[in-house]
Specification:
Layout (H helix, E strand, L loop, with lengths): L1 E5 L2 E4 L4 E8 L7 E7 L6 E7 L6 E2 L7 E5 L5 E6 L8 E9 L13 E2 L3 E6 L1
C-alpha cells in the first residue's frame, strides 16, 4: 500500500485548511485510516480515524468539533477538513493505514503504512 498527503500550508489562526491523503493497495473496508500529527521533540499524536467504508469517525479531544475526516466515493482518498485552526495545530500531518481494525485507532501500533507528511503552520 501507498499513501500520499497533500494540502498543507500556512494559515492564520481561525482559518481553515483541507488535507488529502490519496492511498492505493487497500481494498474497500480492509483498513482503518487515520490522521496523525507530530511536532519536533514530541510523540506522534493520533487525531482522527475511521474504517474504510465505515460510517463513524472518531476524533481526539484536541480536534473534536473543529476537524472532520471523510472519504471520497471511490474510497481512495481520506480528507481532513480543519477549521478554526489554532497555533497549537502547527505540526507535520501524516496519514496512516494498514491496520485491519480501528480499536484504539489513535494509537500508532498496527499502522504499517505511512505517508511522507505535509506541514501545517498556523500563525497567531
Amino acid at each position: 500500500g501507498q499513501l500520499k498527503e497533500s494540502g498543507g500550508g500556512s494559515v492564520q489562526a481561525g482559518g481553515s485548511l483541507r488535507l488529502s491523503c490519496s492511498h492505493s493497495g487497500f481494498p474497500y473496508k480492509s483498513t482503518c485510516l487515520a490522521w496523525f500529527r507530530q511536532v519536533p521533540g514530541k510523540e506522534r499524536e493520533g487525531i482522527a480515524y475511521k474504517h474504510s467504508g465505515g460510517d463513524t469517525p472518531f476524533y481526539a479531544i484536541t480536534v473534536k468539533g473543529r476537524f472532520t475526516i471523510s472519504e471520497d466515493d471511490a474510497y481512495t482518498t481520506l480528507d481532513l477538513q480543519m477549521s478554526n485552526l489554532k497555533p497549537e495545530d502547527t505540526a507535520m500531518y501524516y496519514c496512516a493505514a494498514g491496520r485491519p481494525r480501528c480499536d484504539n485507532g489513535l494509537r500508532m501500533y498496527g499502522y504499517n503504512y505511512w505517508g511522507q507528511g505535509t506541514q501545517v503552520t498556523v500563525s497567531s
